[in-house]
TrEMBL record:
Protein name stated in the entry: Inorganic polyphosphate/ATP-NAD kinase
Species for this entry: Mesoplasma tabanidae
InterPro entries linked: ATP-NAD_kinase_N, ATP-NAD_kinase_PpnK-typ_C, NAD/diacylglycerol_kinase_sf, NADK
Alphabetized UniProt keyword annotations: Kinase, NAD, NADP, Transferase
Gene3D superfamilies, per database record: Probable inorganic polyphosphate/atp-NAD kinase, domain 1, Probable inorganic polyphosphate/atp-NAD kinase, domain 2
Keyword Transferase in record: yes
A single BP term in Gene Ontology: NADP+ biosynthetic process
Molecular function in Gene Ontology: ATP binding; NAD binding; NAD+ kinase activity
Gene name, Swiss-Prot/TrEMBL: ppnK
Reactions the enzyme catalyzes: NAD(+) + ATP = ADP + NADP(+) + H(+)
């Protein structure tokens, strides 16, 4: 079996990685940073997104094993440091959980894709299944997955999505609104069956940001967005005990148990 490790810069994470490497060597696993079967992620969600960026072309083929070490984690919160040995003892027989991703042209989007113009209003047509919803003018449009709904999207008054695999959303950022021009200016929720197209009317100064990286605007100025038919696979020891509701409670609310 082949593996790769992606970790943050914390000293504790380095110690965990060293321990993990010893355990994997004992299992006769081979390190392969080009074409691994399993990717161990040691850190928070930022580290998970970094790993997804590094292996973006292999997302449908690999299995991620996130281990929380520092930082806020939705993707990494399911496994703890103390779980490593138990995970490894049964890893090849364990059924992964699946996390939805967006397809935006050739990009695979874990959290969100931002279509932004910080210098002048973005002008873009928004089409749903070939029908025009609106011509948007404003700072930008953001599309987020369920996992990404608790990050940038939440900070811009988007919906927090509990459904893990069947819903994504669009947010308008600083939309122009006056007597002569208006947009819907509300979060829009899409299901797996919807295909969204964004046609950029003026491409000057437009930035496309997929999770944590900048990407080039297509030459056609057209971005097609939908939920992928294939999901990211993730090994989670605590998926039944640590639901998304419990993670939300832990990170965002008073963290009081329900009586």
């Amino acid at each position: 079996m082949k593996y790769s490790i992606v970790k943050n810069d914390y000293n504790e994470s380095k110690k965990i990685a060293d321990e993990l490497i010893d355990l994997l060597k004992n299992k006769k696993w081979v390190e392969d940073n080009n074409n691994p079967n399993y990717i161990f992620v040691i850190g928070g969600d930022g580290t998970f997104l970094k790993a997804a960026e590094i292996f973006n072309k292999l997302l449908e083929e690999v299995i991620f094993v996130p281990i929380k070490s520092g930082g806020i984690g939705f993707y990494t919160n399911h496994n703890r440091i103390s779980d490593i040995r138990e995970i490894l003892s049964n890893i090849e027989n364990q059924k992964p959980i699946e996390i939805s991703v967006l397809e935006a042209n050739d990009y695979k989007v874990i959290n969100e894709i931002k279509i932004i113009n910080n210098l002048r209003p973005l002008e873009a047509d928004v089409l749903i299944d070939g029908e025009l919803l609106e011509t948007f003018k404003g700072t930008g449009l953001v599309f987020s997955t369920s996992g990404g709904s608790t990050g940038f999207a939440k900070s811009h008054n988007g919906a927090v999505i509990i459904d893990e695999n069947n819903i994504f959303q669009m947010l308008e950022i600083a939309a122009v609104s006056n007597n002569n021009f208006r947009t819907l200016n509300a979060p829009v929720i899409f299901s797996r069956k919807h295909n969204v197209e964004i046609f950029i009317r003026k491409s000057n100064d437009v930035e496309i940001i997929v999770d944590s990286r900048k990407c080039n605007l297509p030459k056609t100025n057209l971005i097609k967005i939908k939920l992928s038919e294939k999901n990211i696979k993730l090994i989670s020891k605590n998926s039944e005990k640590l639901t998304k509701t419990k993670i939300l409670n832990s990170i965002f609310t008073t963290n009081k148990p329900y009586n």
